[in-house]
Amino acid sequence: MNKSQLSRKLGKLQGFVKPKRSLRQYMTPPSIASELLWTAFMNNDIEAKIVFDLGCGTGVLMIGAALLGADVTGFDIDPSAIKVAMKNAQSIGVEALIYEMDIESVKGFCDTVIMNPPFMVKGGKNDKVFLEKAFSLCDQVYSIHNSHTRDWIKKFAKSKGFKPDLISTREFMIPHAYEHHTKVKGQQRVDLWFFHKV
After folding, report:
1. Domains defined for the chain, CATH in brackets
2. Is 39 within 8 Å of 20 (Cβ atoms)?
């Protein structure tokens, strides 16, 4: 499977049925998910590795990792999103193990973390919680963050002993999902990151 084939498969997955605004739930676009996963795959951080997806949502990243040969486990706080993720995994033909829990409660060890945490520009609260947890679980982390947080992300990663490598910057298309949205579609500029322990 190549990157474009992976993107096409991920494009068939179902999104959030009733996204929760409080959790900033947006399905990761297949092209962005496949780029992040393919980079990890080419770095030998996916195939035959134990991979955790923190805040797995509808399962796009974890299913993509499974398609590339990972032994993947997802974690999410939202039971309705987990139901969609399980259905998505079944429809694509991969096994899914997902735990319903708050990210701060995740314990254990893995080879690689993949994640698309909720975007929160002001204060970077979500970024900090997710990154701190990811850094405590493994030495290789692949993550997506709002580009406005770039300087903070770099500084925070270095303070935790991780080297931040910017993979690319992409436009993240956001559908009209919540009442406060005024456009049919919006977009958010995001950075795709690879963090590795130094």
Report:
1. 3-197 (3.40.50.150)
2. no
